Every structure is written in structure tokens, then in C-alpha cells.
Structure prediction request, 267 residues.
Amino acid sequence: MIPFWQKLQSSLSAGLGLLLGLLLVVPMLAVVLRGLGVDWGQLASPQLLAAIGLSFLTTGLATLCIFVLGTPIAYFLARRSFPFKRALTALIELPIILPPTVAGLALLLALGRRGLFGASLEALGVSLPFTTAAVVIAQVFVAAPFYIRAAQTGFQSVPLSVEEAARMDGASNQQVFWRVTFPLAANSVLTGLSLSWARSLGEFGATLMFAGNITGRTQTMTLFIYNAFESNLGAAIAASLILISLGFLTILISHRLAGPNSQPDLF
Prediction:
């Protein structure tokens, strides 16, 4: 017979777990339910279409930049040991938990007209703040750590003996990486890219501070929702449903790529 205090503890744990589950699910469910009565013709508005187009353009460019620039970093961290490696890894991953306003301020102080590299960029005729390029930079800044962490994990999972065997067969370092290491770590790489893309799509604070909120140039879907919240709630809900759907699909894809044992698979 189960003691009373164990039953009480189990019931309390289940109740708290249910409460947290409701807190996580109910807000998104509320958006979906409100979206059922939304006039979806609002999706044809030029401002929203511009925001959707800009979001897909900038997130695509950001994901490409993250892959090209982040892959060498991830492989280096996976295969090399050096002093202060943990400190460097912490700095690279810091944007994951950095408040968005701090991220935006940091970008302004580094790349703004009066920033650390502002004078050098101005001498080259380059002005980044409040441009589409600034949107891409902000997205790369906040999303790259997701890719680097996932790709690093994938590269670490590839046994060194496999790489050494390929080298003994005459393969160059580049051939070993692209024909052996990368294919074996591909699922982790794709998982990191999908999560980075989703994080870029949802970026708001750093973009607002560093790139502004200019229709057709820097106004992404998240900034459109911010603007439309007071003036056109229906359009804000419709755009929110698009982002929720894309985020949900991204999570499903990342779970699928992570392998059959990572999550219970019922469908």
C-alpha cells in the first residue's frame, strides 16, 4: 500500500506539471482560436506582404552566413583543446541568453556610426544601422550560437579513428571533412540550421534597436506584429499564426533530425 505522503507528493507533482503545461500551451491555443475569426484577406495587405518577404529574405541570408562562418568555428571547437576554451565557448553562446535590448545596444556600439568600428566603416562608405544588412547582422548575432552548439556536438560524435582511417587512405583534410565528417554529422548540422533559422525569424529586440522599424526595408514580421497590435489586431494575429506554424514545424523537423530515440514519436 502506497503511503499517504507519497500519494500527496505524486498528486502535487502532477498538478504542478499540468499547470506548467497549460501555461505553455494555452497562450498559443488562444492565438489559434482567435485566428479562426480573422479576416485572412488581410494577409494581402502590402505592408504585411513586404514584412513576410523581407523576413524570408533576411533569415535565408542569415542562415547562409551562419553556415559558412559557423561551421569552421564549430569544427575547431569540436576537435581542438586549448587554454580558455570554455571561456571562449561561453562568449560565443552568450547571445542565447543575452537580453534583446542589450544585444541591440552591443551591435550599435560596435557597428554604429559612433561605434567601435563606425569610423572605419564610414571611411569605406558603409553605413549599417537602419538598413536591411543590419537586420541580417542582428539575426546572425542572436541565432549563430544555436547552430555552432548543435554542429559542434555533431562533429564531436564522429570518432577520430574514422577520420584517421580516411587520411591513411590518402584523403586530404578537406576531403576528410566533406566526405566523411560532415555527412556523419549532417543531422546535427541540419538541426542547428533549422533552429537558427527559426530564431532568426523570431528576432525582435536587437533588430528594432540596430535596424529600426522601416516598412519594406527593416520591418520583419515580428516588427509588423508590434506595429499592428494597436491599429490592426486581426493582421497581428494572422501574422502571429504564421510564425507559430513555422516554429512548430521547425521543432518537429529538429526532433526528427535528432533521431528516433530523442523524442517519443507517435506519428
